[in-house]
Amino acid sequence: MKRPDGFDPAASPRPERQTRPSASAPVDRAGAPAEPVAEQETDVIELDAARLRPKRSGAGAPSQPSGSKSKAKSASSTPAPSSKVDAKPAAASSASATATLERPDEPEDEAFLTPREAAKLRRRHERQEIRRFTARKRGRHRPWVIAAAILGVLIVVSLAGAYSPLLAVRSIEVVGASRVNQAEITEALSDQLGRPLALVDAGAVKAVLVGYPLIASYSLESQPPSTLVVRIVEREPVGVLQSGSVYTLVDAAGVTIERSDQPIAGYPTLMVTGGPTSKGFVAAAAVIRALPTDLRARVASVSASTADDVTLTLVDSPAEVVWGSAEDSVLKARILATTMAATDPSQVNQYDVSSPSAAIVR
């Protein structure tokens, strides 16, 4: 039976049986199929796709996909052509496939991690960056933190020691008392014994010492481990006020230090108008306090009716000293001492130092 187009299958020779190339395989110029090369390209693409698949943690090297194994088997079962030229591409394709299979395992790409693993890795990177950027800042602050800690420890230890019974008052020492009875003051302050030195009641101590008019001022000192020191400054007498047959020793503020029915030796007599509260008394007291000790001992009396007419009389000379006001009393006292040393006080009637720049001797 003939086909309509004139093709007779019986008349045409039957071709020899040979391996048919793949539908997609190219054919070279000689007509030989390049099947091994096409198979190798397919294998390489499939191996790369298998390598890029996400792996689970703990998995080993990537396994060869089953599809590539079957294709490799089919490729090996296909008889190779007898041409020597076609053997070289087959050997090259086999070496390339082997090199692809033996490629060492590469680290996983973060893009193929699960969301949970990616979040965990991101948090770890953030913590590392924070520690790296804050390391220098922490290093700068470390000395200050250590110094503050040491200071805090010292403060706590000091407070604990100061308020502990180990530093309680066991003895009271009174210093600077000559006219005041020291034993009496110590007995009056005995209620402070047993108190920690830091908890001594300053108000109670003041209430006791105010009762002694001879005390001008005082101060408290703590001497660890158990001594309370009371330093007293007594009032300094400046002269004696005479009222009838009563002689009263007073200080510069007019406070009574001592009373007697007899003249009190060693102090000048104050003859002022208006008593201890007058301006004459204040000026006379200021002049006496400005005199040196040796010159003060030679003064018999001081008189003043106002603040500008202070006059002194001497014990060993009939001469009087015209002082004037209490201004520049220290300079006047130095000029008077120099002038008296240069003259014979028993032969002088008057020393006038009211003007320090021009002292007059009469």
Explained architecture:
The protein is 38% helix and 18% strand. With 362 residues, the chain is an alpha/beta fold. The strands form two sheets. It has a nine-stranded mixed β-sheet with strand order 6-5-4-7-8-9-10-11-12, with helices on one face. Strands 1-3-2 form a three-stranded mixed β-sheet, with helices on one face. α1 runs antiparallel to α2 and α1 (35-51) runs parallel beside α3 (87-101). It starts with 34 loop residues before the first helix and ends with a strand. Residues 1-7, 15-32 and 34-108 have low confidence and may be disordered.
Question: Can you give me a brief rundown of this structure?
Answer:
With 362 residues, the chain is of the alpha/beta class. It contains nine helices and twelve strands.
Layout of secondary structure:
Elements: H1 35-51, H2 66-77, H3 87-101, H4 115-162, E1 171-175, H5 182-188, H6 202-209, E2 215-223, E3 227-234, E4 237-243, E5 246-251, E6 256-260, E7 269-272, H7 279-290, H8 293-296, E8 299-304, E9 310-314, E10 320-324, H9 329-342, E11 350-352, E12 360-361
Parallel strand pairs: 1-3, 4-7, 7-8, 10-11
Antiparallel strand pairs: 2-3, 4-5, 5-6, 8-9, 9-10, 11-12
Helix pairs in contact: 1-2, 1-3
Mean pLDDT: 75
Q: What's the total helix number?
A: 9
List SSEs in N-to-C order: HHHHEHHEEEEEEHHEEEHEE
Report the portion of residues in β strands. 15-25%
Radius of gyration equals: 61 Å
Helix content: 25-40%
Q: Count of DSSP E strands?
A: 12
Structure class: alpha/beta
Largest sheet: number of strands, sense, barrel closure:
9 strands, mixed
Query: Which stretches are low in confidence, meaning pLDDT under 50 for 5 or more residues running?
Result: 1-7, 15-32, 34-108
Q: N-to-C terminal Cα separation, in Å?
A: 184 Å
Record the strand order, biggest sheet: 6-5-4-7-8-9-10-11-12
- 3D shape: elongated
